[in-house]
Amino acid sequence: MAVAVDLRESLCRRIEELEPRIELIRDHSLYRPMRGPADWSGDPEHTRSAQEQEAFDTMVDSAEALFGIPDVDPDALARTVAQNPQLCWVHATAAGGGSQVKAAGLAREALDRIDFTTSAGVHGRTLTEFALFGLLAGAKGLPRLQEQQGRRHWSDRWEMKQLSQMVVLVVGLGGIGSEVAATVSALGATVIGTSRSGTPVPGVDRLIAVEDLPRTAPTVDAVVNTLPGTAATEKLLGEEFFAAMSEEAIVVNVGRGTVIDEEALVEALDAGRVGFAALDVFAVEPLPESSPLWGHPRVLVSPHTAALNSGEEERIAQLFAENARRLLDGEELVNLVDTIEFY
Fold first, then answer.
1. Would 25 be classed as within a structural domain?
2. Residue in 259, 264, 192 with CA at minimum distance from that of residue 228
3. Domain total for the chain?
4. In a domain, 244, yes or no
5. What are the backbone angles phi and psi of residue 241, rounded to the nearest 5°?
6. Can you give the CATH number for the domain in which 108 is found?
7. Within a domain: residue 338?
8. Which end of the chain is more exposed for a tag (fewer CB within 10 A), N or C?
9. 129 and 229 co-located in one domain
10. Which helix (H) or strand (E) holds 115?
């Protein structure tokens, strides 16, 4: 197995301790250095010499499994898959690694031959905290407080919303969504969640089908999206959904930006159906300067940074070690990518 991104040596050794049966090949002189915690793609200004690139390609092409998509680059993944017929498993460091696999444009033969796994679940707590932050910022009128403070204006008192009295819709009840649901439920909120299976989820008071989202929209005070970006989820929260929302609802997105129709969201904000939106992800990233979301007084823009945490690297290394054990023991891997819908 080979490390294809800049994983620090102490964590490489930790993987070997957790699963001593593997040989973990790495060469720290060949990686694009991280600029901060969990900066898996590394410094874009860093370039390899022709000799270094050849050595890097030889390393990843010799392995049966990879920690990380090489340089977090779909084109590099496609090149490696084409040159490495023995490759059987690639672990993406992103929770949404399925989109990176899709972007590689791999043939069906390769998708069937290789298991792709993601790091879904390792960001559950950090993203839950951002979702909670967004819900509370909306409930307590953060934009109004900031505007008044900027003018040094002491207004009359007003009643703030209470999370414990709110109905929160969690769209997607995977690892992140389940943790969001449990957290806001513990704070007293009533939680509605979307589910394909209908299996009960702790903290969720009522399950609905995705098809019922527009019908449910008028009954909720806030919505938190945690869904991945797939063809099936693109603009799932769109014009019909936002047109049905109750007045001054709160929208939080910690899933993928493509799930929300941003134009429809802006219209709902302008119409007062949405009172506040806290967004960590966007349909196009970086968010274009021309986007009206930048300047909207009731939108909080976060540059896809809510999941970033110094402990992420260790959690991903532990997940990789567990999947390495499963691979060697013939068990199903955790977080397998669905190579039809790529999530």
1. yes
2. 259
3. 2
4. yes
5. -65, -50
6. 3.40.50.720
7. no
8. N
9. yes
10. strand 115-117
**pTM of the complete model:** 0.90
Considering the domain architecture, whether residues 96 and 178 belong to the same structural domain is answered as no
One-letter amino acid for residue 167 of the chain: V
Quick one: 203 and 268 in the same domain?
Answer: yes
Per-residue pLDDT 10s for the chain (343 aa) are 999 999 999 999 999 999 999 999 999 999 999 999 999 999 999 999 999 999 999 999 999 999 999 999 999 999 999 999 999 999 999 988 998 999 999 999 999 999 999 998 899 999 999 999 999 999 999 999 999 999 999 999 999 999 999 999 999 998 899 999 999 999 999 999 998 888 899 999 999 999 999 999 999 999 999 998 888 999 999 999 999 998 999 999 999 999 999 999 999 999 999 999 999 999 999 999 999 999 999 999 999 999 988 899 999 999 999 999 999 999 999 999 999 989 8
Q: Is residue 295 part of a domain?
A: yes
- The DSSP secondary structure of 224-275, one letter per residue, reads EE-----TTTTTSB-HHHHHTPPTTEEEEE-S-GGGB-HHHHHHHHHHTSEE
Contact 5, 71 (CB under 8 A): yes
Tokens of 257: 């930006």
The parent domain of residue 177 ranges over 124-301
Which residues pair with residue 21 across a beta bridge? none
Rounded to the nearest 5°, which phi and psi values hold at 37? -55, 135
Handedness of CA 291, 292, 295, 299 (dihedral sign): negative
> Do 156 and 14 share a domain, yes or no?
no
Does residue 106 share a domain with residue 137? no
Write down which residue in 284, 301, 318 finishes a domain.
301
Q: Name the strand (E) or helix (H) holding 207.
A: strand 206-208
